[in-house]
Amino acid sequence: MLKRRHYHIDDIESCVLCTSQEEETIDHLIFSCQFSQHCWAKIGISYNTNTSRIEATIRAKVNYSGRLFFEIFTIAAWNIWQERNNYIFNKINPTHNSWLERTKADLNWLRYRVSIDLSDYITSLVNNH
Ligand SMILES: [Zn+2]
Question: Is the pLDDT confidence value at 39 over 90?
Fold first, then answer.
């Protein structure tokens, strides 16, 4: 964002979720980063990073076997971002376990916004991960 607004930045900000030294773009951070790829795999979402973000998301939805794809997708992505922020602002190292616990906690909140059968579905999803 800073670069887009033409602030002068000396060094490329590299991703804090992995050791690749890759520039921290949204595409890297949320989708192609090794850390994030592992998160997606953990919840059964396969993300093809060789295509556009929209195309990859559509394909991921088609290939996803569960329900509530976009809700789960959004919560998972949000918590990858939270892991990153927790490191940047609190110097807490990102872990897949803390990502999973946050994601499960947010999924639990989602139970209050959906029908009873979806609520039950979320409960079993959370208990099985
Ligand atoms: Zn990375």
Answer: yes
